[in-house]
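Morning F.,

Quick status update on the modeling queue. The single chain you submitted on Monday has been processed. Sequence for confirmation:
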Amino acid sequence: MEIASPVSRLKNFPIMMYAIVMGMSGLTITYQKASVWLDISSLFGIVLMYITSIVFVIVSVLYVSKYIKYKSAVKKEFSHPIRINFFAAVSISLLMLSIIYKEYNPTISQFLWYPGTLIHLYLTMHTITFWINHNQELDHSNPAWFIPIVGNVLVPVGGVGFVDTGILMYFFSVGIFFWFILFSIIFNRIIFHNQLASKFMPTLFILIAPPAVGFIAYFKMFGVIDTFATFLFNIAIFFTLLVAFMYKNFLKIKFFISWWAFVFPIAAMSISSMLMYHVRGGFGLLLLSYVMITVTTVIILIVIYQTLKNITNHNVCVQE
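Structure tokens below.
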């Protein structure tokens, strides 16, 4: 097998690498909340916070280097009908890091939240404008389209205390509105048209993220679990059960960086479960919380192993 040179690997360094930061951030927040609500050692959250920060810096340095040396390659990704959605992973990474640091260092949290929010506002507008101005092929639609949308719902999670609730409600409203619209489009595509390509099968897990993150954001803003919050939580549980029921679809999939799409939504469901247990109590919710934490941890260990293995074998950052 011909091994790509370091130069060509940098040129092929994909924007999807920020999905690693999203996944690690989700795991970090999971263990941070578990230390507060389930009395799990806080050491896990602290160690993961530093690891996630280092991963973000490494990915950012490499992608900025790619931009400096290969601007045309970055522009090509930015105009790609599928990869354009993964650029929102950059701002989402900033927002999630802001959430990670909020209790630890509010100053760092604000420093990350404000640019993350502004960048995500721009990327949301740009992505939707791209959808409108370019005819989209139905086969290009997949759950990764939710990434720019989920970020809007994520803004209020870290933004409480930084800005007025009205501003946070704007992002929440946009996220929930487009979640309904995009779900209808993608569900229609999955059922009535060609099946998803194998490399995008893991993105089905992203279906869990909008209602799970929406539930957390709603509680953060209003501090109550009412009918609408319960609706979001229940829908998140439904999609979690659905992807679990479809487990055979994921067993023989060849490794792609999109495997990291497994992690963030499952972590969001773990945090939602712990939050619901924290407010409502009950053995069932406690059991669900521990199950989700375990599943999240096992999945991320598998994905980390596969990522390192494929990087070592030079199967990552290659020309598609």
